Amino acid sequence: MEQTNIQQSPGAVSEDGPDIFQVPKHIIDKEHSYEEDGIHSYFRHSQSYSKYAKDTVIGGEIIINKAKKVILDCDPGGDDAQALVLAFHLAKKLGIEIIGVTTVAGNAVLEQVVWNAQMCMTTCEVPLSVPLLRGEELGGGVKGKELAEYFYGPDGFGGTLLEYQKENPTAPRPHLIEDESAVDFLIRITKEQPGEITIICLAPLSNLSVAQKKDPLFATRVKDLVILGGTYLAQGNTDYYCSEFNFFKDPEAAQHVFDDFSDIVMVPVEACRVFRGMPKDIVEKPFIQTQTKRGKLVYDSFRVAFRNLRNHYETNDPLAVAIAMMPELAQEVIEKCCYVEAKGKFTKGMVFIDWHELMPQQSKDHHANKNPRRPVKIVTQVKIMEIMELLMESVLIE
């Protein structure tokens, strides 16, 4: 098994970054320590939540396995379009087998998501042997739907799907399997290839949650999950502020997945904000290559999001694809047990991290079990220039 050793971050947050969450003075001044593990009053000495998180990271070495066989679980979505284009490119370049593409409602309603995924597969000339499967229409309710439509447009694809369907009302979906659901496919394929498949999760985790409920041994047969979603500093991108969209959309599913699966790599939304610190003329290059079919797909599907981001490009999902297929692109990683809050007036979908390691943990050779649990590998920084080069490669292919 090919593995990448990554030096654990001596600090998960840049010293130059803003201290957003200020700890109240009465908490800082209060005596508080953990004598049993030698960690003393970080609240006293840390003036912000970000610095607190940084100070609790202790050195070590973390291993992220390189994916060999992959299922892409997605909800296209403009950033999913770029992620799928990148995934199909890297799979061919690196000899990675894509077993299938499963869809779930998220950035648009389910049927639109299925169509958007098919457009990506057709544009990238994916072999018909790679199936497309219809997944769950779960989670989030009206509020989640409104968030997605506002950001990516009513079809989740910048209006591209609506234009395509108007011009091609009888267009086929050659990859779509009509007689098997995404959930049944996930259960069946992991029985046929136990311990071999990495699932790259670019969407709400509804499909995985339903599969695990239907087959309680499902989680034990999945090699690992690479999840785009969640937060590690509670700096989200929804109306709940501390929650990331995919986890907010179906928080119960996220909770179930973190409870039941043991090998998880999480690429949180904070790691994706590295684009904000880069010059616009560099960031925009992978988005404006309209001379190729793939480039035009990425450009068109992201055009509404571009306006909503105040004419600045930023993307999330491709980072999870890059880390799964080329784990050496993870620059800093921490490893902590994580819990997802399914409900709450202010915390729906929030990830809680056991910074002090006070909760029971599984031994490294023990598989999925609700309590204790295995730590999650949390990618806090990525090698963004290398990823930008790969994004450019992927959209310049004819």
UniProtKB/TrEMBL annotation:
Residue intervals of the Inosine/uridine-preferring nucleoside hydrolase domain: 70-383
Protein name: Inosine/uridine-preferring nucleoside hydrolase domain-containing protein
Family per record: Belongs to the IUNH family.
Organism (species): Halteria grandinella
Gene Ontology MF: a single term: hydrolase activity, hydrolyzing N-glycosyl compounds
Record-linked Pfam families: IU_nuc_hydro
